[in-house]
Specification:
The chain has 14 helices and two strands. It is mainly alpha-helical and about 280 residues long. It has a two-stranded antiparallel sheet with strand order 1-2.
Length: about 280
């Protein structure tokens, strides 16, 4: 079982178990069309996201970076990278020496002289790009500071990766989202970038597929439509539940004559709403 699958199993089972104990299940839920269920798994529907945003809880979704530019939030987390915060390089855009280190790091990063297959190295390079932009004031000035081999396009793309929310960057650091795929996820704004990142995890998309979907979204296509055109369903996720949770989920779905995905959506939404309050 991968780390992603294991985490999904723990969080999915715990959240549903809590919802069951608190009675967060609808007595009757309107059916949705074309659902899928299978054995000991269920697929939550995209309604969860839609309902959350419709009731004014948009702030629940963090679509951009919240920590200071250059700070090694993920790179300095030993549970993710194996290195302590003190070991991770921090780039301070307001410190001349740190900014010079950022310029040197970007130059080496652009030349791909070390760590090409190291996701933490890639995140460090992205952090250096973002810090250099902040310190120099523009993409063009940052590229000029880093040297002739560094282009404005290169600086812009990797700075955007650094600006992704922590929830996405953690998967990049773990190697579950390729840094090159993260570059295209970062091209997308708003909650669509989150959805695209989760689809990468749940459907094992290639970098080429991510790039194509990101382009369609930036051309004005809704993400759900962009995915559907590739036979990918937004909101479809496979979870392995604990035996008791699985049994109760199936029992309630049968009694209420609905699909398990509907029960799970309502239960998780109620649980999440408690966290907002």
């Amino acid at each position: 079982m991968s780390k992603t699958d294991a985490a999904a199993q723990r969080s999915g089972s715990t959240c549903l178990k809590n919802a069951i104990h608190k009675g967060h299940f609808p007595q009757r839920v309107q059916r949705f069309n074309n659902r899928h269920t299978d054995a000991n798994r269920f697929w939550c529907l995209p309604t969860l996201i839609k309902t959350m945003t419709d009731d004014g809880s948009r702030e629940f979704f963090k679509t951009g970076r919240e920590s200071p530019v250059g700070e090694p939030v993920i790179r300095g987390d030993p549970s993710v990278t194996g290195q302590d915060r003190d070991e991770a390089v921090q780039f301070d855009p307001d410190n001349p020496e740190s900014l010079e280190l950022a310029a040197q790091t970007v130059a080496a990063f652009a030349q791909n002289t070390a760590g090409a297959d190291d996701n933490v190295f890639m995140l460090r390079g992205a952090a250096a790009c973002a810090a250099l932009v902040r310190g120099e004031g523009s993409y063009k000035a940052a590229a000029g500071r880093a040297g002739d081999d560094v282009t404005v396009s290169f600086i812009r793309k990797w700075s955007r990766v650094h600006d992704l929310p922590q929830s996405i960057r953690r998967h990049v650091a773990r190697g579950e989202i390729a840094p090159t795929a993260a570059k295209h996820i970062a091209r997308v704004s708003g909650t669509a970038r989150l959805h695209l990142a989760w689809v990468v995890l749940d459907h094992d998309l290639t970098v080429r597929e991510v790039r194509s979907i990101a382009s369609d979204i930036n051309d004005g296509m809704d993400i759900e439509q962009a995915l559907a055109s590739r036979s990918i369903r937004l909101g479809e996720i496979t979870l392995t539940l604990g035996r008791d949770v699985y049994g109760e989920l199936r029992r309630r779905a049968s009694i209420e004559d609905v699909e398990p995905g509907e029960i799970a959506t309502e239960a998780l939404l109620a649980q999440f709403r408690e966290d907002w309050e």
